[in-house]
């Protein structure tokens, strides 16, 4: 049974009203406050990981059909692109060298670096919780030259797999 929160002004005003005995059951009893015992209501099962849990989405997310097709074809296509082609022909049309190798470019596109904000949005927790995950060694990260945390998408996937954080 859920009780109404205590409003001190309403409590004092209601003390002077004439009413029947059964209406006073809505008001909290002073003995419950003086006893000092609180009933603990467990919302979640205890896990090995002691940190706030991500919020579950209110509705099921639906992927764009084009994105679904891309994700299904990705491994075959990437394998093909990385093994068959090279930069020899393209290099003739640009002066100087490329700033990254072909393998680095594919890795950057497939396993992007994410900021703290993007990571917290993906995991559904606040940025302080993501910092807590990294400080405790649960979530791998690296720092930029400016000292900011950066996360790889593959590390976030490993974190979710390891700690069972799949959204319901």
Description of the molecule:
With 168 residues, the protein is mainly α. Among the domains are: 62-110, no CATH class; 111-168, Multidrug-efflux Transporter Regulator, Chain: A, Domain 2 (Orthogonal Bundle). It contains eight helices and three strands. It has helices spanning 8-15, 30-35, 65-84, 88-91, 102-110, 116-123, 127-135, 153-163; strands spanning 113-114, 142-143, 149-152. The protein has a three-stranded antiparallel beta sheet. α6 (116-123) crosses α7 (127-135). The longest helix is centred in the middle third of the chain and has 20 residues, at 65-84. The radius of gyration is 28 Å and the shape is elongated.
- Using only C-alpha atoms, the radius of gyration works out to 28 Å
The CATH architecture designation of the domain at 111-168 is: Orthogonal Bundle
Helicity level: 40-55%
Please provide the count of β strands.
3
- Which fold name fills CATH's third level, the topology of the domain at 111-168? Multidrug-efflux Transporter Regulator, Chain: A, Domain 2
Q: Give the rounded overall mean pLDDT.
A: 75
N-to-C SSE string, H for helix and E for strand: HHHHHEHHEEH
Structural class: mainly alpha
| Cα separation of the termini | 28 Å
Strand order of the largest sheet: 1-3-2
Percent of residues in β-strands: under 5%
Instruction: Using the coordinates above, name the CATH class of the domain at 111-168.
Output: Mainly Alpha
Major sheet attributes: 3 strands, antiparallel
Topology, element by element:
Layout: H1 8-15, H2 30-35, H3 65-84, H4 88-91, H5 102-110, E1 113-114, H6 116-123, H7 127-135, E2 142-143, E3 149-152, H8 153-163
Antiparallel strand pairs: 1-3, 2-3
Helix pairs in contact: 6-7
